[in-house]
Design brief:
mainly alpha, two-stranded antiparallel sheet, 4 helices, 2 strands, 73% helix
């Protein structure tokens, strides 16, 4: 059974990233829907500022943990599917996994670039670095728009991944055992 599982570290990182990404998606949808002013009116300017800082910080954390996860995946082995997936399932799984990795890297990087271009500080919890770029409001708005689209694409990809996980959990075909924590 253990030969058909990822290492504990890989499984732990998967679930930590799942929680962080879902939180970021929820925050991003809230920010996109309400905007800074709407959020400030709802929770106050100080809390809104903290929420944006947490969003940026957790985005950087997702970027770093995704890089670590990729390094572990490249250096380790991928457990076989037992029973094997069909050709269509392998193709959908491969494309979904590739999109998850690309978007988990690209969306945070895009957010950092949009933040810097907009003249806002780059933040990681209590660390703050002033933007190294001259503020360009129009370009910043455009980049934040694409950052939001990337977040939506990531959200849709996560939903597809979750649907496949639920399908395999219900089938009890061993696929979920590869990534489950217990």
């Amino acid at each position: 059974m253990t030969a058909n599982r990822y290492t504990f570290t890989q499984r732990f990182l998967h679930w930590v990233l799942a929680v962080l990404v879902l939180g970021l998606l929820f925050g991003g949808l809230t920010f996109g829907t309400l905007g800074y002013e709407g959020l400030s009116n709802l929770v106050g300017a100080e809390t809104a500022g903290k929420l944006f800082t947490y969003h940026k910080s957790i985005g950087v954390l997702v970027l770093l943990l995704t890089i670590l996860r990729l390094v572990l995946r490249v250096r380790g082995t991928t457990p076989p599917y037992d029973p094997p997936l069909s050709g269509v399932e392998r193709a959908v799984s491969g494309v979904t996994l590739l999109l998850l990795y690309l978007l988990s890297l690209g969306v945070p990087i895009g957010g950092m670039v949009a933040t810097a271009v907009s003249g806002y500080p780059l933040e990681f919890f209590t660390l703050s670095v002033p933007s190294p770029l001259t503020a360009n409001e129009a370009l910043g708005e455009t980049l934040f728009f694409y950052h939001g689209l990337g977040g939506l694409a990531l959200g849709l990809t996560v939903l597809l991944h979750m649907a496949a996980g639920i399908k395999h959990w219900r089938l009890k075909d061993g696929v979920m055992t590869r990534i489950s924590l217990p």
